[in-house]
Amino acid sequence: KAGVTQTPRYLIKTRGQQVTLSCSPISGHRSVSWYQQTPGQGLQFLFEYFSETQRNKGNFPGRFSGRQFSNSRSEMNVSTLELGDSALYLCASTDSVGQTQETQYFGPGTRLLVL
Amino acid sequence: AQTVTQSQPEMSVQEAETVTLSCTYDTSESDYYLFWYKQPPSRQMILVIRQEAYKQQNATENRFSVNFQKAAKSFSLKISDSQLGDAAMYFCAPPNRFIMTGTYKYIFGTGTRLKVLA
């Protein structure tokens, strides 16, 4: 099976702009989680989508949003970009259907730089 | 709140030698999984090994093995016969349950940077 793919791989934006990142999970996986990784804060959970619904959410402002499509592909949107949003954004997929702790498989990440 | 501690920010090991990376965590769960991921310079997070807490036997995956002490909430990773390709950041990741949904997210430690010396 193909792994998790993320596009674009690199992105440069300016403050105030918005950005949309895309993640395609492993075929058959219905859960997609998003993480933000920065040198200062480490790896932090943003949110998880399962069957087109946001199932869990981390502690990020409302500027961070996402959605999931019927084919399980997910997009993450950040509006009104701030310098502090510069980070590596990772998505991970799992075939978790409920309360099991399945292994997460990560994509290569999208590196976002906000100027 | 769930916490995870990786007390070694950086470690070095000679090629072909053995190194152990430590991880301690806190959880109120009784049955859970624990994971070690590695992140090489390419930044791709790669699963190294998974341990099921209800199993007495420590997980092993080729040159990688864990020393899991459930009572002490300790989950160390041992890398035998270290290779240059093992150089990476290593993250310990216990799960944390969302109360509302009963599902899980993963809490990642701050990571240990492993350098492999030729």
Structural class of chain A: mainly beta
Question: Mean pLDDT of chain A, as a whole number?
Answer: 92
Number-wise, the strands of chain A total: 11
Reported for the largest beta sheet of chain B, the result is:
5 strands, mixed
Q: Roughly how much helix do the residues of chain B carry, as a percent range? A: under 10%
Using only C-alpha atoms, the radius of gyration of chain A works out to 13 Å
Describe the structure.
The complex is a heterodimer of chains A (115) and B (118). Chain A has no helices and eleven strands. Chain A is mainly β. Chain B is mostly beta strands and 118 residues long. The radius of gyration of chain B is 14 Å and the shape is globular. The termini of chain B are far apart. The model of chain B has no long low-confidence stretch (mean pLDDT 89). The chains are: A mainly beta (115), B mainly beta (118). Chain A binds chain B through residues 33, 35, 42-43, 45, 48, 50, 55-56, 58, 88, 90, 92, 96, 98-99, 101, 103-109, 111, and chain B through 32-33, 35, 37, 42-47, 50, 91, 95, 98, 101-111.
Search tags:
heterodimer, A: 115 residues, mainly beta, 7-stranded mixed β-sheet, 4-stranded antiparallel β-sheet, 11 strands, 0% helix, B: 118 residues, 5-stranded mixed β-sheet, 13 strands, globular
Q: What secondary-structure arrangement, pairings included, does this model have?
A:
The complex is a heterodimer of chains A (115) and B (118).
Chain A lengths: L4 E3 L2 E4 L5 E6 L6 E8 L3 E9 L2 E5 L6 E5 L5 E5 L8 E8 L10 E2 L3 E5 L1
Parallel strand pairs in A: 2-11
Antiparallel strand pairs in A: 1-3, 3-8, 4-5, 4-9, 5-6, 7-8, 9-10, 9-11
Chain B lengths: L2 E3 L4 E5 L4 E3 L2 E3 L6 E7 L6 E7 L7 E2 L2 E6 L4 E6 L8 E6 L1 E3 L6 E3 L5 E6 L1
Parallel strand pairs in B: 2-13
Antiparallel strand pairs in B: 1-4, 3-9, 5-6, 5-10, 7-8, 8-9, 10-13, 11-12
